[in-house]
Every structure is written in C-alpha cells, then in structure tokens.
Amino acid sequence: MPKAYIAISVISVILSFIGGFLVANALNRSEVASLRNQVEKIGSDPATENSNSNSQTLSNEEIRAKIAEADASPENFAFQRDLGLALYRYSAMQQDTALLRESARLLERALKLNPGDYQIKVALGNANFDVGYFEKKNEPFENARKYYKMALDARPNDVDVRTDYALTYFLQTPPDNRNAIKEFETVLKDNPKQEKALQFLTRAYWQAGQGDLAIETLKRLRSVNPASPVIKELEELLLQPPTTQK
Question: At residue 171, what are phi and psi to the nearest 5 degrees?
Fold first, then answer.
C-alpha cells in the first residue's frame, strides 16, 4: 500500500497495515545482517565478502557485484529467483525504488524461466506496488495489478494478495473506488475477518460517498477487533465529507 491520500493520519495507518512488503525506514541490525547473509550465499565468493558484516546497509559495490553475477548467468533460475527475492526485501526496507526495479528485473527473468512460480508473481506485484507507493505514480500500480492477477488466476482465494490487488485501485490517483470496493468485498466473502480489507473498504466506501456502507463496514471491523488502533481514526474520518467520489 500505497499510495491520493486522504486526511487524518492516513499515511501512518497505511504504513502500519499494508503489511508484508512495506516497512519503516529504520532497519533492525539483525534484519540487515540476515539479508546480507542471503545475498552473500547466492553465488558468493568469500574473497569478495564485505568485512563490515554488522553494517546497517549493504554497500552499493556488494549489490552491484551480485547483480552483475546474475546478469552473467541469465539462465540460472535459482540465482535469479533467490537474489531477486532477497534484493526485493532489502530495497523495500530501504525504500530504494531504483533497487526495487532491479529486483523486479531479476524476478521477471526468473518468471520467464519458470512461469508457474507463484512466489515470484506475488513478489513482482509487491515490487511494483512499492514503487508506485514510494514514487506516487500510477503506472507501477498498473504493473502490480498485472502480476497480482497472474497470482490470483492460480490461487483466487489468496485473500492477502487480493487485498493488495484492491489497494492498487484504492491508492492510485485518482482512486478507482469502484474496483477497489469490488475486490475488497471479494476478499471479505472468503474471509470476513480480514482486518486490512475491512479498514480500507471503510475508506473506499467513504471516498465513494457511500457513508452508510462505510459505517456498517466500520462496525464489522470493530466486531472483529475492538482494539484495532485505526477505529478511532476511521470514526473521525466518517464525520467528514469525502474528498473524492468515483
């Protein structure tokens, strides 16, 4: 998610709830160390490993060296896949859109080698989603939808992927509330307790000028998780006139 925003701390709420592939700026040292290990294990040469393994970031030289190795072995599916996935997680944490695009390039190559790999399809959706979120551009969201659709064709009941698919409509500029609502409603048919879908369906109804449905959806969220930290903000939001209608 991300990602056309609405008022009342929406950004902080989205960052808290989009989940999975959007994270805070600050990196936990152990997380970065784990990612470094993943990158170094993929065709690593001990002679070229960075001696400063406790650093909070990977050096550009480390990253470029691994990408160059992948480019030199374009038919090595495991290399493309593993490096692409590790690079995706790292670049999402760093909010580095150039690196996100590099991860997507490797993953696209891997998908061509194995068109049935579900995790790659989802990761490509996620990488494009994050670029759209961080750069506030619609085209990456459109690309994300393409890959999410591939994943959903294989597993139509994956509610987490469908929720992110719905968010690409909700977060584009201007928001496509009609399609967002349709997809969130589909999610909730499969899992009526999916909190993220309930949260953003409430917002989508509100943006579309369907206040009664927004109120009803908020009630559903409250019944699922009365302690949800977004309930108060949504209650305040619904007291205001919507900023967009579509």
Answer: -95, -5
Q: If phi over 0 gives left and psi between -120 and 50 gives alpha, with beta otherwise, what is residue 113?
A: alpha
CA 15 to chain centre: 10
Under 8 Å between Cβ of 120 and 84: yes
Which pTM was predicted?
0.79
- Three-state SS annotation for 150-194: HHHHHCCCCHHHHHHHHHHHHHCCCCCHHHHHHHHHHHHHHCCCC
Domain ranges of the chain: 10-237
Q: 67-97: per-residue pLDDT in tens?
A: 999 999 999 999 999 999 999 999 999 999 9
Per residue in 141-166, pLDDT tens?
Answer: 999 999 999 999 999 999 999 999 99
85 Cβ neighbours under 8 A, 6+ residues apart: 103, 107, 119, 120, 123
Residues 48 and 73: beta-carbon distance below 8 Å: no
CATH topology of domain 10-237: 1.25.40
